[in-house]
Amino acid sequence: MTDDGIRCMQLRGGSSKGAYFLAGDLPADPVDRDDLLLRVMGSPDERQVDGIGGGHPLTSKVAVVSPSTVDDADVDYLFLQVVPDRAIVTDAQTCGNLLAGVGPFAIERGLVPVTGDTSTVRIRIVNPAPSLVEARVRTSGGRVRYDGDTVMAGTPFPAAPIDLTFPGRADPVFPTGRLVDRFAGTEVTCVDAGMPVVLVRAADLGLDGAEPPDVLEGNDHLRSAVEAVRIEAGRAMGLGDVRDSTVPKITIVSAPRHGGTVTTRTFIPHRVHAAIGVLGAVSAAAGVLTPGTVAHPGKPGDRLVRVEHPTGTFEVTVDLDLDGATTRLRRSGVVRTARKLFDGLVWPRSEETA
What is the DSSP string of 301-344? Predict the structure, then answer.
């Protein structure tokens, strides 16, 4: 496998970038697979200079795709976060941005046929808990089309739209059973409508809420405070000890500045996102729409939530069965884009290299 290279496609999915593999092209044993991916991506090294990772959590991601094992899905999607500067590969969360590339990848690899100008791919997200999503991919002329005029905040260039529709969930979106908790002396709302997120008011952290990511990352006191909240919230959300986990995310909320619904800054969990993740945005939107949370603006909202972030605005449509702390997600939808960057073989560094 190492001598001959490993088949790999790199796509920009949403506002992230990742390496996409068929499960059959990787070792079946998770330990061997993760060791291989560290060597492919170039970890542990903050620059990932000896691999194809981009030296940032948003560009050090992996999607593993396979024919689905259930009847109501076409493919299974396993997301793996490869930590740039540590020898860690984690499946503790999924990634809604890389999800945007799963449909095109599945069609490119022949797992799903083209059915017209638009082809539907039914995707089963397998981690952290199985869930379904439907992706509508533009396929005019019998092939995936990446060029288009949809401009997505967080990416510099337009591309073809990909519609992602998420069904509802049986579990309440507030995993602690409360709309407001207090962790490390700070009021928060814990919400999970697809991604475990802790919402915190910017003012409660001594922030304006519109600070650039590098300013937030350079504030050691803030980072310590955020991590203290995250560790306590993780236990309360049933995630256990999250010190070495990428979830929950911390999303700082404040009033909108540019005509949106809410302003956000998201720790993922130690770097600050240049935009906001897909499922993180859905979770934040659920918190915004539910009265009584730290993110609710104090006035009724419609289904469309415009989430402002450092590089633009992310629109999320969310249908909720509002019932206080037992509120449930009925349906959500977003529009993303993706673009194929390369398709070929990748060679990992040797196993003997420390």
Answer: --SEEEEEETTEEEEEEEEEE-BTBT-EEEEEEEEEEEEEEEEE
